[in-house]
Amino acid sequence: MSNESQAANDQVLVKRVQAGDKYAFDLLVKQYQHKIIGLIGRYVYDPHEAMDVAQEAFIKAYRALPGFRGDSAFYTWLYRIAINTAKNHLVSRSRRPPDVDIDVDDAHYIGTDSELRDLDTPEHALYRDELERVVKTTLDRLPEDLRVALTLREFEGMSYEDIANVMDCPVGTVRSRIFRAREAIDKEIAPLLAN
Amino acid sequence: MHKANDSISALMDGEVGEFELRRTLEQIEQHSELGQQWRRYHAARASLRGEPQAALQEDISAGVMAALEQEPTYHPSVYTEAAAQPAAVQQNKAAGWWRSLSSMAVAASVTAAVIFGAGSFSEAPTQSPTFYLPGNSVTNDLMRTRLGGAAPELGRYESPDVIRLSDGLTKYIDQHQHLISAQRMPQWSTRWMPEGYSIVRHELLPHGEVMVFANGRDAFSVSVEELGHQSLPEGVAQADGYIAVGKRRGDHFVTVVGDVPLMIADRIASAVQPER
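ok -> structure tokens follow
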């Protein structure tokens, strides 16, 4: 999925929050929490502390949202708030923020080879690897029409209309195939992500 | 629920129109499992793309939202029409029927606002209730008194003004009582509609109801008001490609607005009836 597409989708929810629909912010939290906790975990090594800081970052983001005009992507803006919140947290605990920093524009893609320490406790790493394995295995086993539709959407960032042109089928069929593919994957990963 | 799941998937891809967006958000708010599904769909997407994630078994959203309970809900004035467009439509000008639905939705809402008047349409469910100040006719009854320097410090989102109203208050009391009443049920329905259409919204207003029907491509709205509260006389009007049919139904007035043929609009208006 392209960055532009992701940013446009986020902007729809951001506008809903700015229009008074506070619950739309809950969806943004649910969407980004695991990435934000992972990002903060590179500064704050204790997992529980990292979750508290992530919560604080989301609250700060909500308070600052009236001033967000979409000049940058929402997730870039959110990542910047998260990084600053993590650094301030370390300073408030008389701990020194790391010398190596994260470029917020690249934060979406920082892998485990970053010089900053990963929040990967063995348990977290296990879940993450297992999730990745189950998702990819399920995708491979899907009927071809479902797999192609989801792949074009998630990896190529194509709109439903473009996918319909490629697959020579109605837009409604594309929507249905992508949903069925996601549903099949969700059925497999739900037990892994139960909290 | 299956339909809601399908909408969540489309929402992730920015492929829903304004009606479906609002309805999906309402359903997610009502059914926590849908919110969890949204979380898992995004976790799966991030996993497919190899994006770093952590604490996958945790969900901090409940804690965040509880902490935000005391925070202000933002005013809808910052909401722009652009946000009413599906994200994919914003990116792809050729996305035909979603764009059509969205623009129809906006047009229908505007038309309904004209019919009912801004004061009574301010209660759209996804926006904070907006209470409008009366117009020029009551300007003399409006007195603003600014708090002096000794006043306590006001919060960031509070207005420094105290507004006193002495006229037109009945209308707002009426509106207030309507908004806080959870007991009222829809009183009207239609026994006929064109094939493929279904109801996507049913609003209860102080002196009437508005129903919106859509088929995924086009939409029309049906307004039922107590006689005397309507803005149009009985008859037919046409503007910007939309047709409006107004009909008296006993002690109520029915208005159908949409880009449907006149005969269809007339038949819909005739089919509106009180719930039994």
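Chain A is about 70% helix and 0% strand.
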